Amino acid sequence: MPPNPAFPDVASRRRCTIVALLSDVTRYAEAEVPTEYGPVRTVVYRVGESVPPEEHVALVVGDVTQASDADAPVLARVHSECWTGEVLHSHKCDCREQLDQALHAVSSAGRGVVVYLRQEGRGIGLGNKVRAYALQNEGVDTVDANRILGFADDGRTYGVAAAILRDLGVRKVALMTNNPSKVKGLVDHGIEVDSRVALKAEPNEHNAEYLAVKAKKMGHTL
Ligand SMILES: [Zn+2]
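Above are the sequence and the zinc ion SMILES. Below is the predicted complex in structure-token form.
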């Protein structure tokens, strides 16, 4: 049967989505910001033209542009926003420690990037995340709480992160993550993941079960 142009095959549709995402992600602002990690080039990207704007940030240390595939991999993390962890210093998760370790690592390496994606609560938003916490307080685990609220276990996507890395000239990364689906998400969007660098979180009495569920149900290597 000849292909029907009205219904492109899955691969073509996928390519269309990726191209749309890449052209939709634009560099909006950048400035060097002095931080406890040293000076960090803070590059803000916007996706589309929604109001309020959808903004994500790349935190860049040193020169991350790779002229060719032969260049050494760039130390990188793709980090999803966690207001409760990063602002409130909540003990329910390990996000703040991971962000802190990643920024320390790129700073001491003198070269690297942390892409900070504003997709709170594994993509369900702050309000729904706090609703999930209410369920967890009644004894439901982090994955089942999302399912009860009608969300996927993990609603995060990595096309925007790949587009941001590409805009920065990054082709190949040493990725700081414990999450295999993040590696796959970037590879699927054309970023070569040369190696995975593990991040270590210290369990406490509040997050030990959360970390165990991430390992058991979401395949994280902890
Ligand atoms: Zn968190």
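Confidence is low (pLDDT under 50) at residues 1-21.
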